[in-house]
Predict the 3D structure of the following.
Amino acid sequence: MTEFIPFLMFLVACLVLMAGYPVAFSLAGTALLFALAGTVTGHFDMAFLQALPNRLFGTIENTTLIAVPLFILMGVMLEKSRLSEDLLESMADVLGGFRSGLGISVVLVGALLAASTGIVGATVVTMGLMSLPTMLKRGYSPSQATGVIAATGTLGQIIPPSIALVLLGDTLSSAYQQAQLNMGIFTPKTVSIGDLFVGAIIPGLILVVFYCLYIIFFTRPTPAEGDSVVPAPNSLSRAMRNLMPPIILIVTVLGSILTGAATPTEAAGVGAFGATMLAAIKGQLSISRLREVAQTTTQVTSMVFLILIGAAIFSLVFRGFGGEEIVEQFFVDLPGGVFSATLLVMIVIFLLGFILDFIEITFVVVPIVGPVLLAMGLDPVWLGVMIAINLQTSFLTPPFGFALFYLRGVAPDTVETSDMYRGVVPFIIMQIVLMLMLSVWPQIATWLPELIYK
């Protein structure tokens, strides 16, 4: 029965989360209760928890994670200063003469917001409030409008420089080094957040192209009588004024990381400062707005790091019960080798995406399965991109997808939940097609990092 304790601990943690308790306290509380029970029964050594201070100190010393609050500040500033609304209005004006121009505008602006925020909830809510009423007015069916918005909101999982990729890259870096040390390689190669950023560029762009092609060929909005879709005068010049500053900012942040001119943390600092300057130039940088941005950034950052502490406690207790060895042996004995192991992990992560956010999965699941899969020969960049797209698909899949819950909260009552479910199906299929493409041609994710960093 001892070998089932780690799996039982994981199951109990999921049940506690489903009961509505905060994530960080659910992970830490479940782990400590199992540790106490294991100590009483003689199945757990409390010495494992003595490593917790070193774990937390290592987190504090990790300069890469300083990028998290800075990227959050950058995204929140762009959102609160109404720059995103100006972007959408400008793109809609430019593409208004096309039949599906508004839908394409939503995808392109959503991709920019996803690159700047990387937080699914923020992007979905922002796009839902800004674009859903306009799309319905312009003749898009409720299923088409909500499908485009929900799918676009999840792009933050895969388009760099997003918070999801920062956290996933840092976790995979540790897992990759651990896998090599377990194999007796004492001069391990490293994989950085920059590697994952570069690897995600092509898959992210492919997904945006898929979305746009679907909108062009399969959506047929029927504008209401008298509703003009003619571009506004001087719309192109207005669009350039609104589009270029945030595009330059994102390109500068991402380009400095890719070229090695700056670390992710330094680039995040530039991004946060640049977003603040853009808000000031637009006249949107009041004291009250600064306070609102600072409060939101602090809340999100505190949540991330509190979850990190809870996940650290959980992983230590999981290891103390021999969970890592059990998982490794299970994968080794699994028929089909690395293919079956990878498929099983992807299915589990997909299902966990119904009840856990990407932060919990990154901090809890990836450190457990990552070293085992990487030791079996998987490329860390490819694995990271696959996990990101997999979570993106999970957040979009009915009936538990997080993106659907966020959109339901801001959608009008005239939009049925069943409309939302129908609307996201084509986009789920496109994401699955992309994962199949990555499985057949892993070079889609690995070619660009090898080209740039060799």
